[in-house]
């Protein structure tokens, strides 16, 4: 069984060094679509292409980043159509699986019982030692997330511009597929490393950085729901630990 990992990128240089170390350790191929990066993301990807089976495409996104101006479903389905693996993992550039994932992956792919796998999704907030957890009226954080499915049975992204979700071949929600939960977390480092905010990423009002520049206000409370955090008591994946050591953190 072969696994294709796919991800869209845009100015992900802060994450690509450990992301690519991670996914190339268990993927048979990696498909990346760049949306018009202006940092050194493309340079980093091309360095890894010399040693790994990485296919890089460029589909420039236009309009306001991370908004409905973008055609996210087109990009993600473009990658599905080019995948050659019997399984697909959609792992974004700021996400890294727990180290146990590589060990259980062969068993997951060889089962005939399930077509879709969901995993605990751990969101870091402000720094790599604090996680954000669910609060009333704020269901986005630290939920399970689907990140692995069987290729060739018609699973695709719904036709939406942004925040599109997976569907079965008959257009039903992906949660209706034959699925199960694997108790191995996927860690999300978007709000803990790098700039800790991307352009137009304050659309929910959680960070109080309306100009999309500068240091986020981690104490800000917009009043619609509380932002609840707790210490991270787990262990970062080895690739992230090495990265943090290089940063002296």
Structure, explained:
- With 249 residues, the protein is an alpha/beta fold.
- The chain has one domain (3-247): Spore Coat Polysaccharide Biosynthesis Protein SpsA, Chain A (Alpha-Beta Complex).
- Helix content is 20%, strand content 27%.
- It has five helices and 13 strands.
- The chain has helices at 16-23, 41-49, 72-82, 100-110, 238-247; strands spanning 3-9, 29-34, 54-58, 87-90, 95-97, 116-125, 127-133, 144-150, 156-157, 166-167, 179-181, 186-191, 228-231.
- The strands form two sheets. Strands 1, 2, 3, 4, 5, 6, 7, 8, 11, 12 and 13 form an eleven-stranded mixed sheet that branches. It has a two-stranded antiparallel ribbon with strand order 9-10.
- A hairpin with an 8-residue loop joins strand 9 (156-157) and strand 10 (166-167).
- It is globular and about 45 Å long.
- The termini are far apart.
| Radius of gyration over all CA atoms, rounded | 18 Å
**Number of domain units:** 1
Fraction in beta strands: 25-35%
Described by strand count, sense and barrel closure, the largest sheet is: 11 strands, mixed
> What structural category characterises the helix and strand content?
alpha/beta
List the helices and strands and how they pair.
Elements: E1 3-9, H1 16-23, E2 29-34, H2 41-49, E3 54-58, H3 72-82, E4 87-90, E5 95-97, H4 100-110, E6 116-125, E7 127-133, E8 144-150, E9 156-157, E10 166-167, E11 179-181, E12 186-191, E13 228-231, H5 238-247
Parallel strand pairs: 1-2, 1-4, 2-3, 6-11, 6-12
Antiparallel strand pairs: 4-8, 5-12, 6-7, 6-8, 7-13, 9-10
